[in-house]
Amino acid sequence: LSRLNTDVELCQSLRRLLADEIVMSSLDPETRRVAELFMFDFEISGIHLDEEKRKKAVNLNVRILDLCNEFLTGTHLPNKIDKHVLPEHIRYNFTAEGNYLQVAGLHADCPDDLVREAAYKIFLYPNAEQLSRLEELLASRNSLAELVGYDTFAHRALQGTMARNPETVRQFLELLSDQLSKRTQKDFEMMTKMKMKLNPQNSKLMPWDHPYYSGVLRAERYNIDPGLYCPFFSLGACMEGLNSLFSQLLGISLYAEQTRKGEVWSEDVRKLAVVHETEGLLGYIYCDFFQRPDKPHQDCHFTVRGGRQKENGEYQLPVVVLMLSLPRSTRGAPTLLSPGMMENLFHEMGHAMHSMLGRTRYQHVTGTRCPTDFAEVPSILMEYFANDYRVVNQFARHYKTGQPLPKNMVSRLCESKKVCAAADMQLQVFYAALDQIYHGKHPLKKSTTEILKETQEKVYGLPYVPNTAWQLRFSHLVGYGAKYYSYLMSRAVASMVWKQCFAQDPFDRAMGERYRREMLAHGGGKEPILMVEG
C-alpha cells in the first residue's frame, strides 16, 4: 500500500482527473469522494515533495512502523521487583521467579488496597527504553506531518474525520469535561466514603482505587452478580435475540450454513448467511466465538472481503469475521454469557451489520472503512438496544426453565451502569486529551511524564503518583494516534441516533430502513457529517 501511495505516475494521472471539471461533474458523488480520498492518501505520504524529501517521508514511515511495533510489545511486558521489597502476605498475588516477582498488570479488581497500590506502582514504573521509543515515535510522527505540509500530526490524522481538526476535538473534550465535572466529583466522593468504610486507616482516593470502588458501589447498590444473569443469556438465546431484532428492524435473518472442508481455521467457527427478505443473500459472517489457547484474547470484527460493484454488474458480497472470547459449553449447560459479554456480542454485531449492509461501488469505502470517529457509531448504537428492556425481554430466557428475565433485574442492570459513569467517562476524556497534546505542537514543552502529571490533575482529578509513567502502557497511542477521542464522539452520535430514532420504538421498521439508507449503506463513501444529518 505504501508503495502505491508513493507512485508518482499514478498520482499525476489522478491529479489530471481531479482537475478536469467536465469529467468530475460526470462522476457520481461516491466516485468523486473515493478519488479525493486517494489523493489525500498520496499527499499524506509526501507524493508532492521533491525526490529527496519523498525518500525522507518513506524512511520516516518505515521507522514509525518499527517504533509502533516495538512500543506495542513494550506496553504488555511485565515489570520485575525483588520479592523482599513487598510485604510477605501479598506476594502470592504475583508470579514468582527466583528472588523476583513479576507484575504483569494493574490487578484492578483485587479487593486488597495494598495489592492494587503495589501493582500500580510497579507495573507503571518507567522503563527507559520504552520512554525513548515513545519520544522518538511522537517526534517522528510530527516530522512526517510537517514534511507533508501539516502543522502537527493531529492535523494530518484528523483530516477527513467527523471532527476534521484538533480545534474541534479540543472543544468537544472541554465541553464534555465541563458537563461531567460536578458529577465526577460526586462519584469520587462516593468512592472515598466507600474506601473510608472499608479501609479507615488510609482513605485517600488514588488512581488504583477508581475501577475497584466503582465496582463495589455498583454491586452494593444493585446486587448485579453476573452469576444471577448468565443463566438467562445463553449464546443461543442471544443469537435468537439478534436475529429477531434485525428481522423486525431491517427485514434481515441470520442462517447457519455448513462449511466446506478446509474453509475455516478452527472446527468451532460457525458460518452465518445474512439474508434479506426480498433482496436475498447480503454476505457472510464467520463467528469465531470461543476461547482457544493460541487465540488472541480480544473481541473484534475484521473484513476478509469487502463489498463492491463488479465490472459485470454483480455485487461482490462482503465476508467478515466476528471474534469473541466466550467460555465453551459444559456437559450440563450451554455457553452462558455475562451481561458484559452479551453487550459485547451486540456491539461487534453492529460492526458486522455495517459491513453487511454497505452497498458501495468501491472496496476502499465499504462498510466499516470509514473515518475512525464514525466507525464506532453503529456498534455503540447496538449497545443501546442491548440495554433496553423491550429488546432484552424478547430473548432473555432461563436455559433450564424458559422463565423470562424479570423486568426489575433488567432495570437494576441498566441503573447499575449509571453508577460512577461520570468518573469513568472523565477518565476517557483524560486519555483523549493526553493523546491530543502528545500529537500536538512539537517540540513538546515538557517531558511526556510531566505532561501526563499536569493533564491528569487538570482533566481527571485524581493525583499523579510519583515515579509512574502510565503513558508507556497506553497501547492505543499506536492504532489511535490523535484519534483516541473517536470512541467518545461516536458515543455522542450513537446516543443522538438512539434518542431521536429508536428510543420510542426499538423495532420501528420505517426508522430501521431510514437508518440503513442514510447511514449504513454508504460505508465511508459519504461525508460522515452528512450521514449523521440524514
Automatic annotation (TrEMBL):
Domain Peptidase M3A/M3B catalytic: 107-533
Gene3D superfamilies linked to this entry: Collagenase (Catalytic Domain), Neurolysin, domain 3
Chief location of this protein within or outside the cell: mitochondrion
InterPro entries, sorted: M3A_MIP, MetalloPept_cat_dom_sf, Neurolysin/TOP_dom2, Pept_M3A_M3B, Pept_M3A_M3B_dom
Entry's transmembrane regions: none
This protein's record includes keyword Nucleotidyltransferase: no
Entry keyword annotation includes Metal-binding: yes
Compartments where found: Mitochondrion matrix
One GO MF term attached to the UniProt entry: metal ion binding
GO cellular component: mitochondrial matrix
Domain of life: Eukaryota
Enzyme class, broadest EC rank: hydrolase
EC number: 3.4.24.59
Entry's cofactor comment: Binds 1 zinc ion.
Catalytically driven reaction(s): Release of an N-terminal octapeptide as second stage of processing of some proteins imported into the mitochondrion
Job of this protein: Cleaves proteins, imported into the mitochondrion, to their mature size.
Assembly description: Monomer.
Descriptive protein name: Mitochondrial intermediate peptidase
Source species taxonomy: Eukaryota, Metazoa, Chordata, Craniata, Vertebrata
